[in-house]
């Protein structure tokens, strides 16, 4: 009977079929796919976690291999960035133009199973672009921010920044002209993270720790989730609410003894995130400065790391050659030091046998020139890193912190989002100390390189004379500089010490007193900063930054609350409970009948999900719920319906589409080796009767049990049906903005269908994009 219905439906739909755009073989098994919201681009993740980007005509633009297991994917609202969640809790942000990684953010400790990037929608026709008008004044006074240094092919080390792509990073870091947006990510341990513009973490909640208060038979009851795992998150376009789906056990806090009566299952929660909308201007300004500061902090870290590597390489060669001299001195039965031997040579103009052997045989002219060249090259590269990367980064950080300091003093607006004036003052002082440390490092480097140059020049002359004629007499030198070199540099390395976090310097007593006198003039209170190295000062700045930026993070997190709970269906199997492969889809749609034009315009949420066979004594059923986040005890609007699929078919995947439509992928159950037929079905929810649902606990905890399952009659006007010439598999990729759907077959074919074709199009019209 169901087969006949399918045939009839496919025939009846001939007047309005889904147009097949193309059918292409693919060499990979696809596990995830997502359409770009603004362009005809499809991002796909293969079973071995390669990321592919294809055009609508199936031309491949790029392929990247992040080297990590990809567990989730989504696009930025403007379509310029693709976000990838990994098994180890990282979020990787890649440029759509070339696939290069822009940022790597550690937001979670476990696998990120879902991502959702929501943008603040324009609230009325007068709100032209919905853009925030906050001006970033940094560009008035500074050139473009420096990038991570890359000199001589040497890597600066592991940072949170991505590949070398200066233009993309500059554009990505500038959020002053972007519409306000937030990236939400959920992991398998029940944590949800929020990042403004995808780069500045602004909040995190663990759904297992969030109290859930519900109405229960005329009174309030409190629940909490245990062992919850997030499977889907969706933030509304007005940023007021977040609807999430998670599996876990529901525990009655007020009556723990009866909690075992409530089995684990899939639950729907509504979180109040109105803080994002109410304070979006303040959050935008803070995130604008803070995200740029975090980027520049990575530039500083990479610069210091680069300089340490460069200088270490040169000094290793120097020490390797000059470490031979002490051994020769001992071998000749002498008790002097290397410094004594050179001093004797400098002032006595005669060489000892040990020093003569070292200069003529062990060192030689060629080796000395090689060392001098290595030190000179390292010195030049240090100056480049300081002038082009380190110093500009520190100065821009200082300016941006001054901007934040001004915002922090506007307590009525910024205190509510956790911008602490005292903490920002502390960070501002530390960046001032770092500016001084960079200046000191620059001066010390210049002095050290000058002393090295004079020492090498004198030693080279000595070697040349000793090699050209058998004499113990050597040329005189600028004794002042050579003495300074021998006294301070032969056994010590000031540059290395300044780049060492564990090094501590002794400050001259007069200098310390002078600093204490300067404190009276104001501006700083730290009188011991000269005792610290450059790296130590940077570490202290970083710690104070973390403390200051953790306050908005903590404050915002504390203002996200659970407003409603709706258990969808029970899961008895522990394997199914921990599984993140539930077929679900959540979307918000603006009410067509709503005339609101301010922050109160109404969004209706739709939740679509497949119920596991046997749960709630149902089989082969799809549930659809709407108005969950708009429901309240005074004006209940929660409603839904159940749809039963014919037994001969199973639901492979499903997705909500625009205008409250649902696209369902069906596959015929086949007992033979031959694959059965498959169908893509688009259902109009307006053709189904939504039945009001109760929200009273716990007498009927699964409200969906109140619904009677409707038989899916595909030969009626429920929607459109199209036969797929292959056995299909997940995923189903649907684009509401482009009006297309991509279906993948189990035999590695990709089929793209036009969902919104004209009514008079002929079924046989196929555009061949070969």
UniProtKB/TrEMBL annotation:
InterPro entries: APC4, Apc4-like_WD40_dom, APC4_long_dom, WD40_rpt. Keywords: Cell cycle, Cell division, Mitosis, Ubl conjugation pathway. One of its GO terms (cellular component) is nuclear periphery. Residues 34-119 form the Anaphase-promoting complex subunit 4-like WD40 domain. Pfam families: ANAPC4 (PF12896), ANAPC4_WD40 (PF12894). GO terms for biological process: anaphase-promoting complex-dependent catabolic process; cell division; protein K11-linked ubiquitination. SMART domains: WD40. The keyword Cell division applies. Residues 267-468 form the Anaphase-promoting complex subunit 4 long domain. PANTHER family: ANAPHASE PROMOTING COMPLEX SUBUNIT 4 APC4, ANAPHASE-PROMOTING COMPLEX SUBUNIT 4. This is Anaphase-promoting complex subunit 4. It comes from Zizania palustris.
């Amino acid at each position: 009977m169901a087969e006949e219905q399918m045939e009839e439906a496919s025939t009846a739909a001939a007047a309005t079929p889904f147009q097949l755009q193309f059918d292409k073989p693919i060499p990979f098994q696809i596990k995830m796919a997502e359409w770009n919201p603004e362009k005809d681009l499809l991002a796909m993740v293969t079973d071995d976690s390669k990321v592919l980007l294809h055009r609508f005509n199936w031309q491949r633009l790029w392929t990247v291999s992040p080297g990590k297991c990809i567990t989730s994917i989504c696009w930025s609202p403007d379509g310029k960035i693709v976000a990838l969640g990994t098994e180890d809790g990282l979020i990787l942000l890649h440029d759509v133009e070339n696939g290069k990684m822009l940022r790597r953010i550690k937001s979670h400790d476990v696998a990120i199973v879902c991502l959702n990037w929501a943008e603040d929608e324009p609230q009325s026709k007068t709100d032209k672009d919905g853009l925030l008008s906050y001006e970033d004044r940094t560009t008035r006074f500074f050139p473009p921010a420096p990038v991570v240094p890359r000199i001589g092919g040497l890597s600066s080390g592991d940072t949170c920044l991505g590949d070398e792509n200066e233009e993309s990073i500059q554009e990505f870091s500038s959020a002053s002209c972007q519409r306000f947006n937030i990236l939400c990510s959920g992991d398998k341990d029940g944590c949800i993270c929020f990042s403004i513009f995808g780069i500045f973490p602004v909040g995190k909640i663990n759904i297992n720790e969030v109290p859930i208060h519900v109405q229960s038979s005329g009174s309030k009851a409190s629940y909490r989730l245990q062992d919850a795992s997030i499977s889907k998150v969706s933030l509304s376009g007005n940023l007021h609410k977040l609807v999430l789906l998670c599996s876990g056990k529901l525990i009655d806090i007020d009556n723990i003894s009866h909690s075992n009566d409530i089995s684990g299952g899939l639950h729907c929660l509504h979180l109040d995130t109105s803080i994002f909308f109410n304070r979006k201007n303040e959050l935008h300004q803070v995130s604008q400065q803070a995200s740029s500061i975090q980027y520049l902090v990575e530039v500083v870290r990479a610069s210091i790391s680069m300089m340490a590597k460069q200088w270490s390489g040169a000094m290793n060669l120097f020490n390797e050659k000059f470490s031979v001299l002490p051994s020769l001195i001992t071998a000749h039965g002498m008790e002097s030091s290397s410094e004594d031997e050179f001093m004797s040579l400098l002032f006595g103009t005669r060489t000892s046998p040990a020093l003569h052997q070292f200069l003529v045989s062990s060192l030689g002219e060629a080796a000395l020139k090689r060392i001098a060249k290595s030190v000179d090259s390292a010195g030049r590269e240090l100056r480049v890193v300081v002038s082009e990367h380190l110093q500009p980064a520190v100065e821009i950080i200082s300016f941006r912190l001054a901007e934040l300091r001004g915002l922090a003093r506007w307590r009525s607006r910024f205190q509510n989002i956790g911008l602490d004036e005292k903490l920002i003052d502390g960070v501002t002082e530390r960046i001032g100390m770092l500016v001084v440390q960079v200046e000191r490092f620059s001066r010390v480097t210049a002095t050290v390189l000058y002393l090295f140059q004079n020492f090498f020049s004198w030693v080279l002359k000595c070697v040349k004379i000793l090699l050209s004629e058998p004499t113990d007499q050597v040329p005189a030198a600028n004794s002042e500089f050579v003495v300074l070199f021998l006294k301070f540099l032969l056994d010590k390395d000031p540059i290395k010490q300044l780049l060492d976090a564990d090094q501590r310097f002794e400050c001259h007593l007069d200098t310390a007193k002078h600093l204490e006198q300067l404190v009276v003039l104001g501006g700083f209170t730290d009188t011991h900063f000269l005792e610290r190295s450059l790296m130590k000062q940077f570490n202290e700045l970083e710690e104070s930054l973390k403390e200051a930026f953790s306050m908005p993070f903590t404050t915002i997190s504390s203002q996200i609350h659970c407003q409603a709970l709706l258990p969808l269906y029970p899961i008895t199997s522990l394997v199914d409970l921990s599984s993140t492969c539930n077929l679900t889809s959540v979307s918000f749609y603006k009410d067509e009948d709503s005339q609101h034009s301010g922050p109160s315009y109404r969004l209706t949420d739709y939740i679509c999900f497949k119920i596991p066979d046997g749960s709630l004594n149902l089989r082969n059923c799809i549930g659809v719920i709407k108005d969950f986040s708009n429901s309240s005890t005074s004006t209940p609007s929660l409603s839904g319906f159940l749809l039963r699929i014919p037994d001969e078919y199973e639901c492979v995947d499903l997705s909500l589409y625009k205008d409250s439509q649902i696209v369902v992928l069906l596959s015929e159950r086949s007992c033979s080796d031959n694959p059965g037929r498959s169908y893509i079905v688009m259902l109009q929810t307006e053709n189904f009767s939504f039945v009001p649902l109760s929200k009273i606990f716990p007498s009927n905890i699964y409200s969906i049990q109140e619904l009677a399952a409707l038989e899916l009659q595909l030969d009626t006007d429920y929607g459109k049906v199209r036969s797929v010439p292959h056995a299909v598999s997940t995923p189903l990729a649907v684009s509401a903005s482009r009006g297309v759907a991509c279906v993948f077959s189990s035999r590695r074919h990709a089929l793209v269908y036009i969902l919104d074709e004209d009514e008079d199009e002929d079924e046989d019209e196929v555009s061949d994009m070969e």
